[in-house]
Amino acid sequence: MRRRGFLLLMLAAACGAEAAVPAAVPAYIAQELPDARESGRGVFRWFGLAVYEAVLWTGPSGYQPGQPFVLDLRYAMRLKGGKIAEASAEQMEHIGAGNAQQRAAWLRDMRALFPDVAAGQHLSGSFIPGMGARFHSDGRLIGEVRDAEFAAAFFGIWLSPSTSAPELRRALLGNTRGPAR
Fold first, then answer.
1. pLDDT tens across 118-131, in order?
2. Where does the pLDDT of residue 13 fall: very low under 50, low under 70, confident under 90, or very high at 90 and above?
3. pTM, whole model, 2 decimals?
4. Domain architecture of the chain: domains with CATH
């Protein structure tokens, strides 16, 4: 009986150690963000349906406003790029980012940039301080928006305290050691 308990304890410890191993950093994220580590992850749901899983990749000190990071979204369903752009613009307005003219310009940029996605496809955005944002689809560069205000507004959809998805924000910032403002 003691031996069985010891084996179960060892098995539990091995499983726990395996679960603690950090996720492998995809090559395109490592290229955008050397020393990347997973800060947190969560699922965005709309009326109970999973839309995407989000993973926030940060530098070694965790999420710090104004520091580079990558937000990776793995879609759980097929969506049109235009709908992704429109929903993003609506969320930018929700958090109070930009004025109507800026949001209209940002919507045009996003419509031109965001592709239609299928279930399992990744869209990733890199926050580049003082410059803007760069986007990848399944690791392939699809473009960038050279506008620092756009980048702050776009990533604010997930990271702003005013986000419409506060549980997802908490999950993304879950492993952050720095301030999560």
1. 999 999 999 999 99
2. very low
3. 0.83
4. 24-172 (3.50.70.10)
